[in-house]
Amino acid sequence: MAMTLKDVAARAEISIATASRSFQRPDLVGEATREKVLAAAAEIGYSPNRSARALITGRSGVYGVIVPDLENPFFPAVLKGAQARAHQLGAQLLITDAGEAPDGELPLVRTLAPQVDGIVLCSSRMDEGVLREAARLVPLSLVNRVSPVLPGVFADPVPGIPSAIRHLHRMGHRHLGYVGGPSISRSDPVRRTVIERVCQEIGMEWTDIGSFAPTVEGGRRGAEALLLTEVTAVLVYNDFMALALMERLRGFGVDVPGEISVVGWDDIEFSALVTPGLSTVQVPRYDMGVAAVDLLHDGDVHAGARADGGDGGRGAEGSDGGSSAHVRLGLPTRFVPRGSTAKVVVRE
Fold this sequence. Notes:
The chain is of the alpha/beta class and 348 residues long. The protein is 42% helix and 18% strand.
């Protein structure tokens, strides 16, 4: 005979309502109570029926996550943070890859929308108008993107980039280069603005070397463009590109950091494992994943209250109803110096 929620409640010696909340709204019960309920369910072999729950509550207990490229090592830590937070909330994640195609994001949102309670969009490159269209379909939260009407979390270039530039300046560098990301990147212009401001403050020349794909090949092309300049140090859009740039420079016989100092962005795991270690701006990727799910969940809780109390639906665009609708969280970055930066060598 199949076990029911009533059996779980009896086993845990709590009310059926509390047992139900432990599965449907775990944020409304204490951790000890939820653990007691889960233990009781495991002992008697009870498993909640998500399909039935969705019919009753109007919620699936699933959040979607769309990333531009699962091969990019920036995203695993974001996904781990999102997964950990979803698990704490009693939810699951459905993850998909947009394949670095901005025009592929909206079709994915349309596909996922009927199956999920909300979607985390990572590094979305949709135009603002398309993003608003997507937000009409399902609640959204953004990672690495700022929108005037949607909640999101991003890595604040301050204090990481200013610290990196001042570190290079102290080492004698007076001409900095920047190997940027794709021209459609929403975060890249912000970094360029910070670089320009800091360089002006300390009297350092800087050269915008160009925009490149956020890939290994993009890093290699960035290295080739870098060699056409007179810079002695370079900031790179991400660590993935920076590592490829260093490899390409070595292929041309250019010593890092003896001839050119290199600074990345992200602090992916590989950055500390190469020789020389990659100096980089550390991004709190795990915390960004946690925050993105929290923003979705906070809006979902508020929407549930409106649905119960009769104050409207869950639309995102132009709505002030959700408590997280306009929340934009900037998490601080920090500079991590390693072996890829050094003092300028003065040649006679």
